[in-house]
Design a protein that fits this description.
484 residues, alpha/beta, 33% helix, single chain, elongated, 15 strands, six-stranded antiparallel β-sheet
Length: 484
């Protein structure tokens, strides 16, 4: 496909809406139009004076100035796209940008645009983003301070910064403009979205997670939710600086990973589970073979020997879907030292537990839950979703034998994210799984809307400390603190 066709396909449909055809107004019937009518005579023959004309609104001249900038942008954009070399390689963005700048400067001069320097630069950036990037979303995606971008239809875009939501002045032309941006996001990874399949999960080139849902399921127009990831993954030092955890907690978690404990990271939506899984995965030694399984690949492992597997949705005929559960089963045949599942949502939890119980120790995954205890209850539910008619006690014995540690994260009311519990799974007592907190977050106060508290050890040594000694890992004796 030529460059011209590719760009025109991705270009907003609203470009042709800036100039409306001149349609003559219908002639109104006598007495109903806007034209002034002769004053009707009164009973005495004296004409009644016409009513006074309405005063012009003080907002009447506010909109055309903004519309004229948009119309000028569409006109320049149309000409620029038509004059670009159709054989130009879009992957060579340096050359494409150079040609866009040259053509823009010439076209702007020929059109005689009365623009300030700032408006000229802004127009060039917007046109370049429409041709090479994701249109109005590009400035937001370049902003490193944002963690989430939420498009609620064409006229409303929210962002999350420092855990708080903010409304932006970014808008799209119409629903079709948003749809074309969605298509640009999902096309490179072979996904599709249409009325027969109106929901899709995808990822950007930097690993940021994308979810899109379109009409008829969305009544406000196409909706895009982008969970941004930092260009450089957060490190242990970053999370200590943010107050997510203490150095002692990370020293303990590093020992757990190197001693090959099976770990689940739990928490609510947006609590930082994937970031924490990335941190824990960074503790895996470089000489081990790691297999990751995800719905949409977003883990950023830095080791050399990493195999990344990604689930596949069904095609337009409803066939060919490869769920996470099949990938987990397949990974067992790939000689993994570690299996890392991005998130357990349903029946794959059973395969994950069986892997943990059959020699694939040191595996990790995440799950949605409100507390560590709820995470175990959700695992029970997910195992039942696998379709196996297992007694509840057998499921709990599998869980208590497979899972060694649960790291629970919360996003607090002030927007901060903290590890609130690091909990050991000790085993079964009767029909109940016994758990014991090793580290906890204790809230003490709220000052100016900011939650105050401290992360501290409970003073109880976990039962698996002996595995540290076997692995040659020696922790300071006071790392678990004292309960008094």
């Amino acid at each position: 496909m030529s460059l011209l066709k590719r760009i025109e396909r991705a270009r907003p449909a609203a470009e042709g809406e800036s100039q409306e055809p001149n349609v003559p107004a219908a002639i109104p019937p006598a007495g109903q139009g806007d034209a002034p009518q002769p004053p009707a005579p009164t009973a005495g023959g004296t004409p009644t004076p016409p009513p006074p004309a309405a005063a012009p609104s003080r907002f009447a001249g506010a909109m055309p100035a903004r519309e004229s900038f948009r119309e000028a942008k569409f006109r320049v954009q149309n000409r620029l796209i038509n004059e670009l070399d159709p054989k130009l390689d879009l992957t060579n963005q340096v050359e494409v940008r150079r040609q866009i700048e040259e053509l823009f400067g010439r076209i702007a001069d020929e059109e005689g645009l009365a623009l300030t320097r700032a408006e000229r630069v802004r127009m060039l950036e917007q046109i370049t983003d429409e041709i090479l990037g994701l249109g109005p979303l590009e400035p937001l995606l370049r902003d490193e301070t944002l963690t989430e971008v939420m498009v609620n239809g064409p006229q409303q875009v929210y962002i999350e910064r420092d855990g708080k939501l903010e409304l932006t002045n970014v808008t799209f032309q119409n629903d079709e403009h948003v749809m074309k941006i969605i298509q640009r996001i999902i096309a490179p990874i072979g996904r599709r979205v249409d009325e027969s399949s109106p929901m899709v999960d995808a990822r950007l080139a930097d690993g940021s997670r994308v979810n899109a849902i379109i009409p008829p399921l969305s009544l406000v127009g196409p909706v895009i939710t982008i969970r941004k990831f930092s260009a450089t993954p957060f490190t242990v030092d970053d999370l200590i600086r943010f107050g997510t955890a203490t150095p002692e907690m990370f020293e303990f978690l590093e020992a757990c990973v190197k001693a090959r404990l099976n770990i689940f990271v739990s928490g609510g939506t947006g609590s930082g589970k994937t970031t924490m899984l990335n941190i824990l995965s960074s503790f895996i030694p470089d000489d081990e073979r790691i297999v990751t399984v995800e719905d949409a690949a977003e883990l950023q492992l830095r080791q050399e020997h990493v195999i990344t597997l990604e689930a596949r949705p069904s095609n337009i005929e409803g066939k060919g879907a490869i769920p996470i559960r099949e990938l987990v089963r397949n990974s067992l045949r790939m000689r993994p030292d570690r299996i890392v599942v991005g998130e357990c949502r349903s029946g794959e939890a059973l395969d994950m537990l069986q892997a943990m119980n059959t020699g694939h120790d040191g595996s990790m995954s995440t799950g949605h839950a409100n507390t560590p205890r709820d995470m175990l209850s959700r695992l029970e539910t997910m195992v039942l979703m696998a379709g196996m008619d297992l007694p509840l006690r057998a499921i709990r014995e599998q869980i208590s034998s497979a899972v060694d540690l649960i790291v629970h994260q919360n996003r607090l009311k002030d927007g901060t994210r903290k590890i609130t519990n690091i909990t050991e799974v000790q085993g079964m007592e009767g029909d109940v799984i016994v758990m014991q907190d090793v580290f906890v977050f204790e809230q003490t106060d709220v000052v100016d809307g900011k939650i105050q508290g401290k992360l501290k050890p409970t003073g109880i040594r976990p039962h698996f400390v002996e595995r540290f000694e076997t692995a040659g890992i020696h922790l300071p004796p006071n790392i678990f603190g004292s309960p008094f």
